[in-house]
Amino acid sequence: MTALLIKNPAQIVSPRPGSLRGPELKDLHVSSGNCIYITDGVIQTIAPFKELESRAQVDNAAVIDASGKAVVPGFVDCHTHLIFGGDRTDDFALRTAGASYEEIATNGGGIARTVTATRAASKAELKDLAHMRLNRALRQGTTTMEVKTGYGLNPETEMKMLEVIKELNDEHPVDLIPTFLGAHSVPSSMEKTDYIAQIKAMLPEAARIAKFCDVFCEQGYFNSAESFVILEAARKAGMLPRLHANQFHSVGCIEAAVDIEAVSVDHLEVLKLDEISRLADTDIACVMLPGVSLFLDIAFAPAREIINDGCIPVLASDFNPGSNMSLSLQLVMSLACMRMGVSVPEALACITQNAAYALRLDNVGCIETGWQADLVILDCADYREMAYFYGENHAYAVIKKGALV
Ligand SMILES: [Zn+2]
């Protein structure tokens, strides 16, 4: 048996279990004067030191002195594009020097550059790149991450990406949840109807590894009817449906998501009020991605309306080379607080418990007896400082399944 005692933290802060809506989001459990006792990766007891001291000695437990530090659940990033080949630094430099999207694309940049590089990269190269990125995420407190395919756009490369996710999950402490996103874009060499047929043919193979199937439902990509058809077939193949929806246009994706009983709708920058009411009547998680709004200088999702109407709000990074090159959920939290009208406790719930719900995980996202011991020990005594003192990494130590990582 392995045992770990987190001794005398200034605060232990946790959302309540469940899919949190409205006032439940800010109803965090904040305690001081308690320690966390962990055995074999599971939280056993939350109690004062004097009640745990002798047991910790008997068990020969490791001890982390957390005095003056707050402890929060490990962060769950439920929307990333972690795996890709190549580098888009040149695109970014051109854009910041004033080049238009078209000029960048003409220059060989944009998503086409990433697809070409991802197809050309070996599995080992993709894994090395992703491994380095994942280390960065872990250092910043992310202990669970969803990862999408979508830069292959052909059967070989999409499967190569899924295999990289699977192997990386076995090798790295961060738990990775694979999502098949063959419907990210239509490859330039194919007609859309042919490509959709190809995606459908790939679904049984993808479902061997992927838990979710995602579609980029957007004007110029996949419309709501096409998204529905793909996701219906994906569900039959054994994957749970989710959608990129309402990033630039409202084109019926929310209706499709409700019809298909999607697990989540992600982006939502241009969500309309009637669509928010529609989502509030469902169990669909509403995943907002403020890093993209910052990076592309577009509108932020209407978080306040989403929360006030009773939807299940979630925050994630959408880490990807084209529209948000940041893995920091601490920055996401700060952006949500500063630019979207989300309070600090709500924001914490959105990157922990509700994000775990969006991935259909039921043992992470809270600090509760019996739950997996995924924790972040912050370098501050008050967890709210993490959002306030922004642009900094406040993770002092990260615990994954009861081990310091
Ligand atoms: Zn995305």
What is the gist of this entry?
With 405 residues, the chain is α/β, with parallel strands linked by helices. The chain has 16 helices and 18 strands.
Question: Which descriptors apply to this entry?
Answer:
405 residues; Urease, subunit C, domain 1; 2 domains; 6-stranded mixed β-sheet; 16 helices; 38% helix; binds zinc ion
How would the blueprint of this fold be written?
Elements lengths: L2 E5 L3 E4 L14 E3 L3 E5 L2 E6 L1 H10 L3 E4 L4 E4 L1 E3 L11 H8 L4 H6 L4 H10 L2 H17 L2 E7 L6 H17 L3 E9 L8 H15 L5 E5 L7 H14 L2 E6 L7 H8 L3 E4 L5 H8 L4 E4 L1 H7 L6 H6 L3 E4 L13 H11 L4 H8 L1 H6 L16 E4 L6 H4 L6 E6 L2 E2 L1
Parallel strand pairs: 1-6, 2-7, 8-9, 9-10, 10-11, 11-12, 12-13, 13-14, 14-15
Antiparallel strand pairs: 1-4, 2-3, 4-5, 7-16, 16-17, 17-18
Helix pairs in contact: 5-6, 6-7, 7-8, 8-9, 13-14
The structure holds zinc ion.
